[in-house]
Amino acid sequence: MLVVVVAAVLIGAFGIRFSRTTSDFYVASRTVSPLWNASAIGGEYLSAASFLGVAGLVLSFGVDMLWLPVGWTGGYLVLLVLVSAPLRRSGAYTLPDFAEARLESMTVRRTASVLVVLIGWLYLMPQFQSAGLVLRTITGAPVWVGGLLVAVVVAVNVLSGGMRSITFVQAFQYWLKLTALAVPLVFLLMAWQSDGAPALSAEDAATWQVPLTGGRDYALYSTYSLILATFLGTMGLPHVLVRFYTNPDGRAARRTTLVVLSLLGAFYLLPAVYGWLGRIYAPDLVRTDTVVLTLPSRMIGGTLGDVLTALVTAGAFAAFLSTSSGLTVSVAGVIAQDLLKGGVRSFRWATLMAVVVPLALALWARALPVADVVGLAFAVAASSFCPLLVLGIWWRRLSTTGALAGLLVGGGLACAAVLVTITGGPYEGVTGALLAQPAAWTVPIAFAVMVAVSFLTPDRVPAGVARTMVRLHTPENLDLDRGDWRPRSS
Amino acid sequence: MEYLVGSAVVAVVVGVPSFVLWRVMRGRRELGTSPAERATFETLHTASLAGPPLRAGLTADGAERASRHLRALLGSAALAITDGERLLVYDGAGEHHAAEAYEHAAATLKDGRTQVLTIDCDLLECPVRQAVVVPLTTDDRVVGALAAYGQSASAGLVRAAEEVAGWVDSQLELAELDRSRTLLMEAEVRALRAQISPHFIYNSLTTIASFVRTDPERARELLLEFADFTRYSFRRHGEFTTLAEELRSIDRYLILERARFGDQLQMTLRIAPEVLPVAVPFLCLQPLVENAVRHGLESKNGVGRIAIIAEDAGAECRISVEDDGLGMDPERLRRILAGEIPSAGGVGLANVDERLRQVYGDEYGLVVETAPGAGTKVNVRLPKYHPGVSAR
């Protein structure tokens, strides 16, 4: 275990040296290429939920759960079509930056900051939880140890500046995770073949592999809600958007998104197969999130099984560390800049806040399947930032008051649902379904509120909207007047 | 257990805001003991609330937000504010008089004197019977009028209206001041656009001339680099560029300087690719590099080393330009940066410092580490995003 953590830290340290070759001459072609950048996005994006959670949910609830990886990939399609290039052209580094650039209001900016922090915390919490789960599965240590371990490693790494948004390091993480899942899978499939290629049991064939017959109530509603949350939530994740800044222009941002789509598409084939194999070989698991870790020893065993288990575990820890550090940097940056005073001291405090709160949540909250909790973070993002980005980019009549109202109502409702789900519950029936998958009602409400309030307050449309729209939508190589610099009015 | 956690979370979510609210309310109540003191604080507080909306000048939006507080100050039934052309806001009772409010103000707008008007109204219960109209002036020019409506225009109301108008005038003058300061900053940033030094042009051309016979191919290459460098430096549009463009220009500059100094000039560049798209003020690094070359090399014998490092640091980018030259007395440098004494041979550091502060605020000025004989290191921090700053 220690080896993996040390290796991850070393890769961090070594990667910095590797990616920052010292030279006599500046080489202009060294801008980050779309492939590297896309790998970095993939590396940061593929969290414990993707690495462990998807296979576990597929094992438990059947093919309905395939919508989760589909949505997590498809979210980039929506991002590609509606958001990526204009967002890059806006010059914004974080979501609050975009809110300020488009709506020219500090109030909206602060609201966006608070939401970013909440989404970040919600996303970090399951990472810590599943780190505990993995460590318990492998070593038998108590659940809190793994979470604490990852939290400390991430905090130290971020504070020492080790993993701070280094493209190369995060890009490496993607390929590490892909290898850690793909190589064992090859062996597992060979074992399955030599085992006489057993099929699913007759009962599973009738229910498990047929859509909308899985073990969950209100399957149709939940599925649509999940699709909505994942497709629209991706654009509101704080650690994804900061990567787009590295692209030199809007065109490169689109290309990067396209590469991300294919990289994620390739990756998400694997957990689905794990889930299917798990249904055949390990249908008795209690915490199905561990299926990816359990399969090598169950199906192969011996030294090879141990080696493969170690490889998968390394991949899982890579997933915890990369996603958590990316999120921690983003969340801490926003806390330090918008909620504290800014500067190095604030960043340290902010890093602690960014790590400690989700760690506490992870230790005390209800142990839900990791992919479900991450799905909730997506739901909050989809009901707050998706309307802000989509309407902000494509609708010039969006008013400051409208955006604020939409963020508060949409984000507030989704947050409330999430809070109730992870602290109380489980709830039965319609209430349970509505609370566990809130996106289907919160997203339309958020859009409706934003549009309606904007119509009611036409005098609160920001003064510079025409100029902002020109900046967002004209390609960079077009030579036209985008307006001069003006000092910020106090 | 779950219910326990749930209730704890709810307690925190509900408790913290209510605690803050309670503190705020209590804080307000604690002020002042006697009724007179409390009334004074009350008035000052109302005035301070009305101030900020007016700081944008006489606009419909600002007037609307200020009018409620101004009416509270005056204690009148209704209040109207007009600018020179139209009614900006009518606030209070008797909404049906809003349509005539501009006519009420017309005489005052014309001659700038306080008027007391009697208003005809058929409604018995309407509290608007008389109006006091006072002018709003900036620089002795009538820019608008404030009308206070009530049952009767008592001497007290007239006096209060005039005082409030005087207070509004001072806010409007502050707004005017803000506006001219903004214009001044814009003009300054344009005027401060750094220029490449004539020495450099002269030195480059003589260096190139020295190669024309011995190595014509090299001379040709250098001349092309020089042409590209000048085209970038002399461009007219836009106050900002990307760090990548700026570094490309610095690279050309260094090629020319290396042609001149040969092995005496040793360079180290370490640039994080993540910060290349950052928008930076046009020619904000080139003067620093030029400074490093001049101070680090020209005034001493032997090999000079220069290091340019750009790092990614979350929401900002950190750049340092370091030389191992003669260094400088920190006190002298401070005075140069403060503009107390002109620096030798150009605007250089002080100019960059000034521009960075203008654009990003005082916390983003240059930080220079230096001592006589210890070399110089100039640190620049640039935020990745700043409102209004964009490279294109």
Write the layout of secondary structure elements.
The complex is a heterodimer of chains A (490) and B (392).
Chain A: H1 2-19, H2 34-45, H3 48-61, H4 67-89, H5 95-103, H6 106-139, H7 143-159, H8 167-194, H9 202-206, H10 219-233, H11 238-244, H12 250-281, H13 291-299, H14 302-339, H15 344-364, H16 370-394, H17 400-423, H18 429-436, H19 439-456, H20 465-473
Helix pairs in contact in A: 2-8, 2-11, 2-12, 3-12, 3-16, 4-10, 4-12, 4-16, 5-6, 5-16, 6-7, 6-14, 6-15, 6-16, 6-17, 7-14, 7-15, 8-12, 8-13, 8-14, 10-16, 10-19, 12-13, 13-14, 14-15, 16-17, 16-19, 17-18, 17-19
Chain B: H1 2-30, H2 35-54, H3 60-74, E1 78-83, E2 87-92, H4 101-111, E3 115-118, E4 130-138, E5 141-150, H5 155-191, H6 198-214, H7 216-233, E6 240-242, H8 243-261, E7 265-271, E8 279-281, H9 286-298, E9 304-313, E10 316-323, H10 330-337, H11 348-360, E11 367-370, E12 376-383
Parallel strand pairs in B: 7-9
Antiparallel strand pairs in B: 1-2, 1-5, 3-4, 4-5, 6-8, 9-10, 10-12, 11-12
Helix pairs in contact in B: 2-3, 6-7, 6-8, 7-8, 8-9
